[in-house]
Amino acid sequence: MVKVPHAQIPGVYHRRVGDIVVTAISDGHLDGAIDVLRNISMDDAREILTDSFRPARRTAVNAFLVHSAGRTALIETGSGNYLLPTAGKVLENLKAAGVDPKNIEAVLLTHMHPDHSAGLTEMPSGRPHFPNAELVVHENEPRHWFDDAEMAKGTERAKKLYFQCAREQVAPYKDRMRLFREGEIFPGVTAIPRTGHTPGHTTFMISSGNEQLLIWGDTVHVPEVQTARPEVCMEFDTDQDAAAASRRKVFDMAATDRLLVTGMHLHFPGFAHLRRRGTGSELVPAAWEAWS
Ligand SMILES: [Zn+2]
C-alpha cells in the first residue's frame, strides 16, 4: 500500500555565515485578517496579496539558533500555547534539529510579543523550557511591558496578550536577565535597535569573516505588502511612525549593502535578499544550499 504522509517535515534549515551556523526553526504559522494593517486601504492590501498568490494574510513564525564559538543561542522562542494550533512548534522542531533545550546558553529576544517570547515557559506550570539560559533583551522591553501605567492604557486584548503574557513568560528568568542597549551580545551577534514596533524592538547582525546575515525581527509582518509599501504598519505597533521609519532604515541598509536577511515573519526558512522595485522593494528568496 502507498503511504501518504500525514505530518509535515520538520521545520529546520541550516545556513552558514562564515564560521557561524544559523538554523531557522519554524514555530509554524498564523493566519489572520488583514484589518490589522494600517496606512493602506483594504482593497489595496487584498490586491497585493492576490497578486502574490496569497489568498489571505499568512504570517510565518520563525526562531533561529545561532551556533557560534562553541556556544548555542536561540533567537526567539515562538508562541508556546498562547496563539493558534498551527504555531507553537519551536520545541518540537528543536528536537528534530537534535538540540536539547538544556544546552541553550542564551535566549535572545528581538522584543516581547507572544509570538516571540511565549515559548519561554510552560504554562500553566510556570516551568522554564530553557533551564540553563540567560534571557537577553533590550532594556526598554521589560521597562515597557512591566509598567502598570502603560498596561492600564491598553485594550483588554493587549493587556492579556502583551503585558500579562510577557510578565508570566519572563518570570522564571527574572534573576538571569541580561539587558542591552546595543552592540555585541553573543559571539558574532550584534544588536542594532530599530524601535517602533515595540519600544525595544531590535535587529541582530550575525557576522563572521566577511559574511553577514541580518535577522531583522519584525521589520515586516506581511512581507508581500510591507516590502512593496513600507509605510504600512500594524495595529499592534506601539509607535507606528517610528516603526515605519525603522522599516525604511532596515530596507535601505539591506538593499544598499546587498545583505542576506531573514526575519521572524518571512515565509520559512526566510533567507532572502531585498531589492528595490519602483517605490518599494521585493524579497528574492535565497537559493537552497547543499553542504559537502
Ligand atoms: Zn512578531
Mind explaining what this structure looks like?
It contains eight helices and 18 strands. It is an alpha+beta fold and 292 residues long. The strands form five sheets. Strands 1-2-4-5-6-9-10 form a seven-stranded mixed β-sheet. Strands 11-12-13-14-16 form a five-stranded mixed β-sheet, with no helix packed on it. Strands 3-15 form a two-stranded antiparallel sheet. A hairpin with a 2-residue loop joins strand 1 and strand 2 (20-32). The site of zinc ion (ZN) has 6 residues, from helix 3.
Fold topology:
Layout: E1 12-17, E2 20-32, E3 37-38, H1 42-51, E4 57-68, E5 71-75, H2 90-96, E6 106-108, H3 114-117, E7 121-122, E8 127-128, E9 134-138, H4 140-145, H5 148-153, H6 156-170, E10 177-180, E11 183-186, E12 189-193, E13 202-208, E14 211-215, H7 223-228, E15 233-234, H8 240-256, E16 260-262, E17 272-277, E18 280-285
Parallel strand pairs: 5-6, 6-9, 9-10, 14-16
Antiparallel strand pairs: 1-2, 2-4, 3-15, 4-5, 7-8, 11-12, 12-13, 13-14, 17-18
The H/E string reads EEEHEEHEHEEEHHHEEEEEHEHEEE
Gyration radius from CA atoms, angstroms: 18 Å
Shape: globular
End-to-end distance, in Å? 35 Å
Strand order of the largest sheet: 1-2-4-5-6-9-10
| Category from helices, strands and their pairing | alpha+beta
Strand fraction equals 25-35%
Number of helical segments with 4 or more residues: 8
Report the average pLDDT across residues. Answer: 97
Report on the biggest sheet.
Answer: 7 strands, mixed
Report the uncertain regions.
Answer: none
Ligand types = zinc ion
